[in-house]
Design a protein that fits this description.
- This protein is about 30% helix and about 20% strand.
- It has about 325 residues and is α+β, with helices and mostly antiparallel strands.
């Protein structure tokens, strides 16, 4: 239990540069940003990450696509188990340009619950039913914010996220509830129209949207010849309890109270194995480390076996979702 003792405080410390944000964007600390989130249940950030980091994110998607152990995994199921062993992924989601916005909504002590790349390929018929993210989160209390970071242009033609404006003021509904919805949905189309105005969240590459866990949202099929790729990140306050102990939650900024969660190490960078990125040479010096996790997981060098374990976890998740 020594890994839980005391207060843990971290700061990433990688130097970042940022592009000017457009007039239409919200800046951290701006009243309009928090007011929009509080009023509508979401807020849009233009140019949320700088051009270099956006380029690295695109390279990362291409790099993941080339990984032999991920061949055959549906492109919309690149989940948290991959991130667990991927240093660039954690470098990206811990960038100050993102955490500064999140801090305005849930406070200075920020942790990660999960993250997931969504790749909706051209002409994909897959739709995401109307749902509330918080209905699926094993977290208490629900001091959480979801962030969507666009890798590609995201619009109505290629199946962008659609939201019901103001629906975050409603209570969380059980998936597949009494309204007869399939298990992966919480609301019907009729429910969504009744609750408020349905709006598409159109984003350019590098833009981000932040969503309240109670916000009703979904997405349509991709009828275009363009891919729609984005990264979903689920941030939580560090004193929120994750009720699934095996979930590898990460502490990204600030401190965490003792005995709440086991905050795991940030992934180790291994030259020649992991994707190189800006600041990778210094990554192992600044990354958050947990002694037990270092000994049990990041001391391993059997990379093929680690990949096999990640793949088995992904396949299990995909199978579970298909059975719902």
């Amino acid at each position: 239990l020594t890994m839980y003792r005391g207060i843990r405080r971290i700061s990433c410390g990688i130097a970042r540069t940022r592009l000017p944000r457009s007039v239409a964007s919200h800046a951290p600390g701006a009243s309009s940003f928090k007011e929009a989130y509080k009023r509508d249940g979401y807020a849009i950030i233009r140019n949320a990450v700088d051009a270099e980091l956006l380029g690295e994110m695109r390279d990362h998607v291409a790099w993941l696509s080339s990984r032999s152990f991920l061949q055959g995994v549906p492109p919309d199921h690149w989940h948290h188990p991959i991130m667990r062993n991927d240093p660039f992924w954690v470098r990206l989601i811990s960038d100050d340009s993102l955490l500064d916005y999140v801090q305005e909504l849930i406070g200075p002590n920020i942790a990660l619950f999960s993250s997931h790349y969504f790749n909706k390929m051209p002409k994909s018929t897959r739709e995401v039913m109307w749902h509330q993210d918080g209905s699926y989160y094993p977290l208490w209390p629900m001091r959480v914010v979801s962030l969507w970071l666009a890798v590609d242009r995201s619009d109505e033609a290629n199946g962008c996220v659609r939201v019901v404006k103001g629906s975050h003021r409603t209570e969380l509904q059980e998936p597949g509830g009494a309204n007869g919805m399939a298990a992966m949905g919480t609301h019907s189309e009729q429910d969504a129209v009744r609750l408020g105005e349905v709006l598409p969240l159109e984003l350019d590459p590098g833009d981000a949207s932040l969503h309240h866990p109670n916000l009703v949202h979904g997405s349509s099929a991709n009828s275009s010849n363009r891919r729609r790729c984005g990264l979903s990140v689920r941030y939580m306050a560090s004193d929120v309890h994750c009720l699934i102990e095996e979930q590898p939650v990460l502490l990204l900024r600030g401190s965490a109270p003792a005995f709440v969660n086991w905050y795991r190490s940030w992934p180790k960078y291994r030259a020649g194995y992991d994707m190189a990125f800006r600041g990778c040479e210094a990554w192992n010096e600044i990354r958050y480390k947990d002694a037990k996790d270092e000994a049990q997981y990041f001391s391993r060098t059997d990379y093929h076996q680690m990949e096999a374990e990640i793949r088995a976890e992904l396949d299990g998740f995909v199978h579970e979702v298909k059975d719902l």
